[in-house]
Amino acid sequence: MERIFGRPIVTQEQMRTRIRELGRQIASDYAGKDLVLVGVLKGAYAFYADLARASRIPMRVEFIVVTSYGAGKKSSGKVKLVSDLTEPIAGKDVLLVEDIVDSGLTVQYLMKTLSRRKPRSLKVCTLLSKPDRRTVEVDLEYVGFKIPNKFVVGYGLDYRQEYRNLPYLAALDQGDEQEQESA
Ligand code: 5GP
Prior knowledge:
Elements: E1 5-10, H1 12-29, E2 35-41, H2 45-54, E3 60-70, E4 78-83, E5 93-101, H3 105-115, E6 121-129, E7 142-146, E8 152-153, E9 169-172, E10 180-182
Parallel strand pairs: 2-3, 2-5, 5-6, 6-7
Antiparallel strand pairs: 1-9, 3-4, 3-10, 8-9
Helix pairs in contact: 1-2
Bound molecules: guanosine-5'-monophosphate.
Guanosine-5'-monophosphate is lined by residues 43, 68, 75, 99-106, 151-153, 157-159, 182.
């Protein structure tokens, strides 16, 4: 499993420390509010589980499943909603939990879709951000790590649906132009 990886980008220890900080920040910002933590699957599953446990305030947990298709390891912007939330979010304080914001198109799509349902507030927490890759402007309230323009795997992020369970984040050391489909 380790064979194809280049250098680790974020270690397990760095993850733990940063997620603890984010959890404390979210707990403070959302104290007394009606928080619904919406995880974007599959990529956010590992981050989500750690973040939810690090944010020690009452919350509801919800998930939404999207796929974004693209070649050359980048999103085409064609986002597809595969599975929706189980409850209405009108009047709730919704925090969207993402694995990575690359072009920004997925987050833009989700913000548009969810804001139509009239939540009281709607913000984004992403584990990773690649600011150099942005093609649309998105407002990210919480960012775990800003990373350079490399294709990364681990900690929920896949390459062809594998490596999601890697407990740290690594750059995939292969050619840049392989097909990628992510969820
Ligand atoms: P967007 O371009 O819409 O901001 O990002 C769409 C999706 O592309 C992300 O949710 C993620 O699934 C995938 N993605 C973007 N960059 C990477 C990366 O470096 N590694 C992996 N595994 N997926 C990525």
